[in-house]
Amino acid sequence: MLQATVKSKVVIEGVGVHSGVGCRVSILPASENCGVVYVLGDTTETAAIGSCASDVGDSGGVRANYANVSDTTLCTRLGYGKVGVSMVEHLSAALYGCGVSNAVLCVCGGEVPILDGSAAVIVEKVLAAGVQWQRESRKKLKIIQTVKVEEEGRWAMLSPSDAFLLHMTCDFSSKGLTTQPFLHEFSSERFITEVAPARTFGFLTDREFYQRHALAQGVSPENTIIFDKNGLPLTRSQVTKALARSSSAFGIANDTVTEAATDLRFSDEPVRHKVLDAVGDLSLAECEIIGRYDGFCSGHRLNNLVLRKLFADSRNFLVT
């Protein structure tokens, strides 16, 4: 596969799901071997467009690499020191799914907008702008030996395969959802139709946790599927009624909520969204992946840890 960038600027803007404030990302074309670089602060787009992975320190940016993941609490955050950007996983997955390996991302607000909770909007915008294929080949990461990380019964594993396969199993039976397995053989076409549209989800029973830690301040029925204790998606008016004791629990302003059923895009949308997250997290290897990923109730932390374990021993992989 050849390296690629966007043909023209792509802008995504909206609310940050955790901060609850407006944020914006401009995706700019980049040269070969640049990689994906986030540039934050007041840097102008004219200055940022010259940034690449070799000079992120000078541009006030951070390279989209697994080693730069600084936090994995309910999202993947890239950063070091005072420089950082949260919720990169959907954007990372969208770029990988579209074949984009080089881009400079100018971020205002410190967070990638949640949009509709999926990667579909970003994919649509990137494809509308066009993908510019470049002359040099993209590096390939081939898994040679199986590596696995596990915490409290949850685990993530990378193993040899001739293709990029992702198999995820979600067990939310304690919260009313049936166990959901999903196997995805990655290709851009399949990713765009089978995985990218799957939206972020949460559970009403976790509301107090989010409030206590000042998380999910921007969640709304427009960007998140909220399940009740029986595993059923709530309508907007049901969310309003359930949260009537708080004017902004989950970050949902009651006076802006109107009635509309939350129809699932797939019967197994939650597990497909977990695969979406995994694609985004694994893309931080900065290579075309040839291998199999398996996860059981895994998330951003385990996805990052399994990459770190893989790269900790050169016998585990081959980069060509």
Sum up the structure in keywords.
single chain; 320 residues; alpha+beta; Ribosomal Protein S5, domain 2; five-stranded mixed beta sheet; 20 strands; 29% strand
Average pLDDT reading? 88
Extract low-pLDDT stretches. Answer: 245-249, 251-261
Corresponding CATH superfamily of the domain at 2-138: lpxc deacetylase, domain 1
| Cross-sheet strand order for the largest sheet | 2-3-9-4-5
Q: Profile the largest sheet.
A: 5 strands, mixed
Number of DSSP helices? 9
Q: Could you name the CATH class of the domain at 2-138? A: Alpha Beta
Q: Count of DSSP E strands?
A: 20
Structural class, by secondary structure, is alpha+beta
* Spatial extent as radius of gyration: 19 Å
The CATH topology of the domain at 2-138 is Ribosomal Protein S5, domain 2
* Assigned CATH architecture of the domain at 2-138: 2-Layer Sandwich
C-alpha geometry: globular
**Gap between N and C termini:** 12 Å
The assembly state of the depicted protein chains is single chain
